[in-house]
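SAMPLE LOG
Freezer: B-3
Tube label: C17
Construct: single chain, 199 aa
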Amino acid sequence: MVRLALDVADDVGYAASRSRSHWVEPDTHQQGHGSGAVGHARYAGMITVVSLVHAEWELRLVRVDRPSEQAIALRVGGWALTGEGPEVRTDERETSVCLPGLSCRVIAVDGGPCDPVIYQRAEASPLPGLTAVPAMTVAVSAGKWRAFAISLAGGEGAVAGRVPTLHSLVEDGEDVVAVVTWPSHGLVTTRCPGVVLRS
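STRUCTURE (predicted):
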């Protein structure tokens, strides 16, 4: 992974990175001990992620370039929450996990097609209870930015609270410029330099 940008402007933090992403194709024969799965790395694509952050909200911008033929879906996840009986919710454009005093939401804010999903695992954490992760799955579209609002906040009020509004997202040379209304900060234009991958 390569860091592309890291700064704060108008009380909005931004960071960007790019990775040559892979997944592991497991071998048929696996050893049953703690060294992990054995397999071969398969190239997936070049993934660029830009995060704009203010208060409890992250606006995550994701773009896939040079995908392999096998890379057909991209999954964008929120924070894993662990506890007894997490409350999970999904609708057409949002997925959320709530525990007493804590919640995480993942919301598709760009209008593109998406598939909300929640992953739940027992004994995935040293903490007691069930671990749940809200996520969004979208089709891979080379060179196209997708945008998601992700929150980690306290209490039920965070679920019912206002969401950042993405008014526009444009490329200007190698920069990305986002115009966003933040719930507790108002309208802000943020330029994240040097993040556009050119062929």
